[in-house]
Amino acid sequence: MVKPIVSVFTGVTELFGEVEFFFSGRFGAPDYVSPDLNFNQTGYYAKEMGTGLVRRIYSYPDLIKPAELYPLKLLTIDVENRWRVEGKRRVNIDPGYLSLAKLVLATTKDNVHRICIGEGVYAEVTLFFEKGGFHPWPWTYPDYASDEYRMIFACIREIYRGQVRNGEQNTFKRTHSGPPVRK
Predict the structure, then answer these.
(1) Which H or E run contains 97?
(2) In whole angstroms, what separates CA 95 from the centre of its chain?
(3) Average pLDDT of the segment spanning 58-64
(4) pLDDT at residue 40, as a whole number
(5) What is the DSSP letter of 2?
(6) Is residue 113 within 8 Å of 139, Cβ to Cβ?
(7) Strands 32-33 and 37-38
(8) Were 122 and a residue from 23, 105, 114, 175 both cysteine, which residue would form a disulfide, CB within 3.0 to 4.6 Å?
(9) What is the largest CA-CA distance in the chain?
(10) Which residues are bridge partners to 64 per DSSP?
C-alpha cells in the first residue's frame, strides 16, 4: 500500500477548497497540505490557464495499491473537466503516490522515461529516496527537484512511515461517489 498525493495548481485559489473537499470524500481529510507554492518554472500552461498560478500538494491518509494510480488519474481528468470554462482548464490536478523508496506521478504525456499504466496514462518515478533524502533524476521537473519540494515529500514520507509502522491499511474508497462538484 502506498500514500496517495495530489498536486494541484490553479490561478483561481478558491478552487483549492473545492478540490480538497472532493478528494477528502475519497481518501479522508488530507493529512498534509503544503503551503502555497508559486508555479512559475514554465510558461507551458499560460495560454490555457493564465499566469500567477499557485500549487498546493496534498497527501491523504487512506492508502492505495500502486495499480490504483491509473483510475486515480482518470478521476483527476474528470474533475479538471468539470471546472473547465470555455474549454479551458481552470485547475490542473496531477495524482501520484509516495512509497518509502520513491515518488511516482501520473501524466497523460508520454516520454522515453515513462511507462504506460493504462490507455493514455503514464507513470514516472519523479524522485527516489536514498541516504536519508529524496533525489531527482535528470528528467525530474525543476520544481520537484527543488529543495523546497523535496522537503515537502520528506514530510509526507514521515507521515507515511508512521502509517506503515502502525500497520494502517486503509484503502481507496472506490464505492463512495464523494461530494458533488460544482461546475
Answers:
(1) strand 91-98
(2) 3
(3) 95
(4) 81
(5) B
(6) yes
(7) unpaired
(8) 114
(9) 48
(10) 2
Would you list the DSSP string of 67-85?
Answer: GGHHHHHHHHHHHHHHT-B
Q: Where are the chain's structural domains? A: 3-165
Burial 110-147 (b: 16+ CB within 10 A, else e): eeeebeebeeebbbbbbbebeeeebebeeebeebbbee
The strand pairing partners of 3, in sequence order, are 98
CA geometry: angle 59, 65, 70, nearest 5 deg: 85
E strand or H helix that includes residue 102: strand 102-107
pTM beyond 0.85, yes or no? yes
Cell representation of residue 126: 519523479
Q: Which amino acid is at 64?
A: I
Q: What is the DSSP string of 106-142?
A: EES---TT-EEEETTEEEEEEEEEETTEEEE-TTS-H
Is a pLDDT exceeding 60 seen at residue 183? Answer: no
Please, are residues 65 and 169 in contact by the beta-carbon 8 Å criterion?
no
